[in-house]
């Protein structure tokens, strides 16, 4: 079923505005970027901009949400295909480099998120909510691992925090210093070390 | 031996400028802060400022160096007092919360460092060099642990990256979301989990 032309055009305009905003925020920073610059970079009118977004703040929040939604989808896909929790975690570590690579060009943008988060309560919620969500995601995963016997009876809360902290640290270091290490290897073996620390004796037979 | 009054006064002026710069950079951001504002906040003349620092950029770099030097000194002190590498690592994890607490009020400043690092090669070097230095520090520590038999024959490079990534991740999350977890517990037990993954069978008797 093809979309109505007007709806399709509206979606293209919206996507162009978001792409232009990434470019402007990364280059100039959030504060120095105005709606006019985003419009000029996107080749759209201010009217078109405000038809889609209430403010540059709305655009900023949507950029955070969109990136996180794509990461979420990827993690869920990998987990669904894994035979047990340790395998799921190792597969997540394997795709980490592509998540990092995707993030690389966006370093200035992430730093803008974090910087604004320390000043703006709404951005703070949008930036910290995902950490808390990822924490819950990994906490449940660890609980599943303990139930299936692939992990020993560790504290799911702490292990989840360790996994999230490791991911955040690798993301930031890999983004700031791509040549500083083989980040792909570090992610894979790092998760392997954490798994060696928490692995149980029994493992669920592969499905 | 008391210091010469003039020298003492000079040191106090320097310290006042640095403290005022932390305050201004944290509140206004690096770009929006001028030398005049730092001088006003410090209660010193521009002449006094330029007697001590070539530019606000120099002040900024010195703030990074000073904080890192204090962290280094603390890590070295803990290590010297530990009987073996696992104990040294656990003690470092125990002081992590105070390093985090010290960092907490400086979040906007760290984010400024990282943001400027993505634009300014000199700040980039000043910001990434410490990660590489900490990496080497922990790499040597892991090598020592393998030699003394407290750690099994792991890859020191990878374990060091994991430790640094964990520390960076905890620092950022703890700073952005102090109420999000018991970061002190997470640091201690997180290092414990990594140690469980890399611990050797023999342990050096305590000194």
**Total domain modules of chain A:** 2
Spans where pLDDT lies below 50 across 5 or more residues of chain A: 202-207
- CATH homologous superfamily classification of the largest domain in chain A: Tetracycline Repressor, domain 2
Q: Give me the strand/helix succession of chain A.
A: HHHHHHHHH
CATH topology call of the largest domain in chain A: Tetracycline Repressor, domain 2
**Estimated structural class of chain A:** mainly alpha
Could you give the topology of this structure?
Two copies of one chain form a homodimer.
Chain A: H1 5-28, H2 35-42, H3 46-52, H4 56-81, H5 85-104, H6 107-117, H7 121-148, H8 156-176, H9 183-198
Index terms:
2 domains, Tetracycline Repressor, domain 2, 207 residues, mainly alpha, homodimer, Arc Repressor Mutant, subunit A, disordered C terminus
Descriptive report:
2 copies of one chain form a homodimer. The first copy, chain A, is an all-alpha fold and 207 residues long. Chain A has 2 domains: 1-53, Arc Repressor Mutant, subunit A (Orthogonal Bundle); 60-198, Tetracycline Repressor, domain 2, CATH 1.10.357. Helices cover 78% and strands 0% of the residues of chain A. Chain A has 9 helices and no strands. Chain A has helices at residues 5-28, 35-42, 46-52, 56-81, 85-104, 107-117, 121-148, 156-176, 183-198. Chain A is elongated and about 60 Å long. The two termini of chain A are 37 Å apart. The model of chain A is unreliable at 202-207 (pLDDT under 50). At the A-B interface, helix 6, helix 7, helix 8 and helix 9 of A face helix 6, helix 7, helix 8 and helix 9 of B.
């Amino acid at each position: 079923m093809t979309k109505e032309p007007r709806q399709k055009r509206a979606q293209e305009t919206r996507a162009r505005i978001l792409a232009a905003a990434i470019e402007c925020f990364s280059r100039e920073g959030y504060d120095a970027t105005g709606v006019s610059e985003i419009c000029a970079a996107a080749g759209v009118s201010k009217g078109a901009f405000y038809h889609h977004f209430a403010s540059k703040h709305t655009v900023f929040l949507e950029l955070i949400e969109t990136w996180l939604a794509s990461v979420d989808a990827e993690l869920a896909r990998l987990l669904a295909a894994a035979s047990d929790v340790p395998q799921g975690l190792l597969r997540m570590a394997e795709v980490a480099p592509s998540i990092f690579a995707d993030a690389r060009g966006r370093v200035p943008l992430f730093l803008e998120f974090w910087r604004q988060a320390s000043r703006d309560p709404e951005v703070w919620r949008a930036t910290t909510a995902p950490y808390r969500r990822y924490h819950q995601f990994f906490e449940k995963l660890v609980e599943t691992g303990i139930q299936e016997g692939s992990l020993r009876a560790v504290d799911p809360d702490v292990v989840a925090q360790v996994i999230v902290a490791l991911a955040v640290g690798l993301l930031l270091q890999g983004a700031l210093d791509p040549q500083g290490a083989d980040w792909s290897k570090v992610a894979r073996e790092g998760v392997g070390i954490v798994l060696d620390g928490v692995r149980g004796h029994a493992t669920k037979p592969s499905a």
